[in-house]
Backbone:
């Protein structure tokens, strides 16, 4: 059984930083899979934030380029999202996804 468990969300002031973690378990190995972070704000559709491929290539939404960084630790089977210079518009539930699997999400709230 595959599980993706996000953690690291919380309340932060604008300009602050947070690091999200996504721990994968079961028959999913992040070293072999493109993993992504997505977010969904109230009343909006879920949107792509960043992805990292099995060979380490990264891709970012224009709105987070230069502020967010996706990385992974294959030994821990964990994907990270470092978020710096946070803005109020980054407020959303952040989800980790890989293949057809999703985590439960972690809330990020940025106060202005």
Residues:
């Amino acid at each position: 059984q595959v599980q993706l468990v996000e953690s690291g969300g919380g309340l932060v002031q604008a300009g602050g930083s947070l690091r999200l973690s996504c721990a994968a378990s079961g028959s999913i190995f992040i070293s072999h899979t493109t993993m992504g972070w997505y977010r969904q704000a109230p009343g909006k559709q879920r949107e792509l934030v960043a992805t990292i491929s099995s060979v380490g290539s990264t891709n970012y939404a224009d709105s987070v380029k230069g502020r967010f960084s996706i990385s992974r630790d294959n030994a821990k089977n964990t994907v990270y999202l470092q978020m710096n210079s946070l803005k109020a518009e980054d407020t959303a539930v952040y989800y980790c996804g890989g293949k057809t699997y999703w985590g439960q999400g972690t809330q990020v709230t940025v106060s202005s």
In short: The chain has a mean pLDDT of 96. The chain is about 0% helix and 55% strand. The longest strand covers residues 18-25. The radius of gyration is 13 Å.
